[in-house]
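Note on ligand handling. Small-molecule inputs were canonicalized before submission; formal charges were left as drawn, and no protonation-state enumeration was performed. Where a ligand contained multiple stereocentres, the stereochemistry in the source SMILES was retained. For zinc ion, this procedure yielded the string shown in the input block below.
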Amino acid sequence: MLQVPPGVAARALGLECRQWASSTRPLFFGVTLTPASLGGLRDTTGLRAAELRQMQLDRYAGSVLDLSGVELGREASLTAVAAREWMMPTWSRACPLCLKRDGVWPLWWRLGIAAVCPVHRCLLVDVCPRCGVRLLRGSERGPRGLLTREPLPAAGECANRPSHGPKGRAGLCRQVLADIPTTTAPEAWADLQRRVLAVAEGAPARIQGEPVSGADWFAALRYLTALTRLAATGEDVADLPGFVAEAFVEDQRRRTGWPRGGGGTRLTAMPASAAQALAALALTDQVLSSSRTGTAGPLASWIQRATAQRRTVGGADPLRHLPRPAVVAA
Ligand SMILES: [Zn+2]
Ligand SMILES: [Zn+2]
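Structure output:
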């Protein structure tokens, strides 16, 4: 571990940063590199630009992420993109057992499709059980920058700062992240996560046996997720592990409770937790991996139910703004 405050280290590594009182934050931190940051990092680390880009979320641009709209000269441009895309720009999910093994945070834990650790077959953790704040977020009021002053939090600790806590090191959450309890997930879901990650990393993708691009595959995943939020029922999730079915039903209930909408209730919003992500992956997999086309299967009943709802409630198709995947159009 570096024995200097992380904010100081970031500057020393050549990252272009914005400075606050006692913390600093590299621009587009972890999402992409500005030309100045890329140049600085290349000079200090000797790594090639392509290698450095592999360490940023933009390595997934073109498959699971679409970063169009990000303007490197304007950091505020990230806000709209981050709200649209299934990514966590300022927090992360995590597998405590992986952290216990080597302390490394893989990049994919910050993707909205992150649900299960394929190695340890457990649900990823969203929130620190001790402070109640999402991992690495800092505080719920806003993302924390990197600290530029002593005292440093101990390695492996949560170090979030819950609201109304004391100042200084005493205010930092002392939860050891590797000790957070986990929920076991059956091997089938670890395998599903492995397959989805492979597509995110550029492996060949297929929908109902037909080859498609990674971008089209994830567009279909997102469309179908929106459709299930609209039209899947408890019966559709009955075969999933109990905690997944509960997370799905709870998400639907929350949406009905806020009919006027709001950020988290958009049908296209990123799954708010690892359990919801697993529900999305599992439900959409029934369509994407199926060899069946035509009128049978869950897709047909979801479309029927969504259409029936629209007839009752009236109004336009809530999914009209989404690119309709070929499998649905058929
Ligand atoms: Zn793990
Ligand atoms: Zn904590």
